[in-house]
Amino acid sequence: MKFLSAIVTFENLHEVRRLCHWGPVIALSVIGICSTMAIFDSIIWYWPLDTTGGSVNFIMLLNWTVLILYNYFNAMFVGPGYIPLDWKPDGQQESQYLQFCRVCQGFKPPRSHHCRKCNRCVMKMDHHCPWINNCCGHQNHAYFTSFLILAPLGCSHAAIIFVMTMYTQLYERISFGWSTVKIDMSAPRRVQPLMPFSVPAFAATLFALGLALGTTIAVGMLFFIQMKVILRNKTSIEAWIEEKAKDRIQYYQTGEEFIFPYDLGGRWENFKQVFTWSGTPRGDGVQWPVHPKCHQHTLTIEQLKQKADKRVRSQVQYRAVEVYNGACCPVSKGLQTFFRTPCTEEPRIPLSKGDTILATRGTKGDPLPLGLELNLEVIGPPNKHPTEPEG
Ligand SMILES: [Zn+2]
Ligand SMILES: [Zn+2]
């Protein structure tokens, strides 16, 4: 099939540098350790390869590793799809409905957002994922989500191998607890195992088991989050925009009815936008099919309204009362601040004593101090507009 014959494609060779980051280094190490240990345990101690079950088990393990790496590298190197620099809509009229990105020197088409890590505007951006050191967006959404389901499945299989290896090696003979199913482990003993199950092998298997179980839980949860995004055809950023839209309509009592434009009405319909047999999602990442009551710019117009609204309300000005150097993990500001290091890799803001900063709304309409952990004193609403950071 076409999607199997396709190999990992590099948009540019320099994309390889994405591997040089803690995210891919840790992720690939975990995949490497779990796969190697599972294959190693299977061959040497658990289930002899000259039995049918042992061979099927071995092939399945290899299969998981190949599929996981295939989807992982495609998520990383195919990437989310970037909006061309200097991009303009076809019609001059349309640009009035779009936000302008000063970094990319172009307009942002619907659903795209600027990623500070990638330093580009990203098609249908969901979030920047440090584990693939790239954004999750339009073009790699299916690869990314496939990886999120395959990794827990592969890790669960590996975890079973680890438990069974330790169990069989410690007790030599295994019973599943019901008398009819028994795996006779006399075969490997007849052919003298390649090496005895030593203490280091036991420790390595136990360590791999911990990694496999941790990965199954953590990545499995991410899979459910991404499936929610796909089945509603609503990215995490768009869910946030929708929440702000409802908040804005309620605040001004405009009586507007906000319909999220990209939910095509059915889960299956939404699913098919992302998952296709060819591996390429539907659409060009610029024009999107929309709900019958909406048009191409329903959401971008809402974003512009929110941007204007942000300037006029719900801002609180704060004054810094102590110096802060902007360190990611500050040691001198107490434990709470240290452990609240932003997981999103968003930078912290260096402050001098007396600096004023503006904070916009939090989730519940409360003002959200940007440096919550710092001692900031409220000095009232702003009297001049700040220069907005690009975001
Ligand atoms: Zn941009
Ligand atoms: Zn990014």
From TrEMBL:
<comment type="similarity">
    <text>Belongs to the DHHC palmitoyltransferase family.</text>
</comment>
<dbReference type="InterPro" id="IPR001594">
    <property type="entry name" value="Palmitoyltrfase_DHHC"/>
</dbReference>
<keyword id="KW-0012">Acyltransferase</keyword>
<dbReference type="GO" id="GO:0016020">
    <property type="term" value="C:membrane"/>
</dbReference>
<keyword id="KW-0812">Transmembrane</keyword>
<dbReference type="Pfam" id="PF01529">
    <property type="entry name" value="DHHC"/>
</dbReference>
<feature type="transmembrane region" description="Helical">
    <location>
        <begin position="201"/>
        <end position="225"/>
    </location>
</feature>
<dbReference type="GO" id="GO:0019706">
    <property type="term" value="F:protein-cysteine S-palmitoyltransferase activity"/>
</dbReference>
<keyword id="KW-1133">Transmembrane helix</keyword>
<feature type="transmembrane region" description="Helical">
    <location>
        <begin position="53"/>
        <end position="73"/>
    </location>
</feature>
<protein>
    <recommendedName>
        <fullName>Palmitoyltransferase</fullName>
        <ecNumber>2.3.1.225</ecNumber>
    </recommendedName>
</protein>
<dbReference type="InterPro" id="IPR039859">
    <property type="entry name" value="PFA4/ZDH16/20/ERF2-like"/>
</dbReference>
<feature type="transmembrane region" description="Helical">
    <location>
        <begin position="147"/>
        <end position="167"/>
    </location>
</feature>
<keyword id="KW-0472">Membrane</keyword>
<keyword id="KW-0808">Transferase</keyword>
<feature type="transmembrane region" description="Helical">
    <location>
        <begin position="21"/>
        <end position="47"/>
    </location>
</feature>
<feature type="domain" description="Palmitoyltransferase DHHC">
    <location>
        <begin position="97"/>
        <end position="241"/>
    </location>
</feature>
